[in-house]
Amino acid sequence: MNPHDAAHALAKSLRESADFKELKGAQAELKTDQSARSMLLDFRNEQLEVQKQQLSGVKIAPEQEEKLEKLYEVINMNNTIKRFLQAEYRVAVLLRDIHKIIGDATEEIIDPELMTLPEDKDGNSEE
Predict the structure, then answer these.
(1) Which of 4, 7, 37, 76 is the most exposed place for a label (fewest CB within 10 A)?
(2) For residues 84 and 26, is the Cβ–Cβ distance under 8 A?
(3) What is the CATH number of the domain that holds 77?
(4) What is the pTM of this model?
């Protein structure tokens, strides 16, 4: 089987998998429950803000951490959101596993030395 055919077969297999079907159903249910959708989006926005601060080296205030924890507890009590998050997690794990398998298969042909950017005369990588 050539790689393109295998990729199409993989895509078909993913679409037909129980995990993808569960995620699709959970997404559809979440979209019809405006309250649950809003709660999830609020949580994700707060989570994103905390992650941005962490990445930029800003210390997270204890109140912010507490707010995020409380939001998580609240959304986890909602069965629609809980179902969606669980399905989303299972699909993410599946995709991560597939990515690792493909990465492992291509590792032998990717030479890290040929993937680096050349350095300028000051020792900085050019971008």
Answers:
(1) 4
(2) yes
(3) 1.20.1500
(4) 0.78
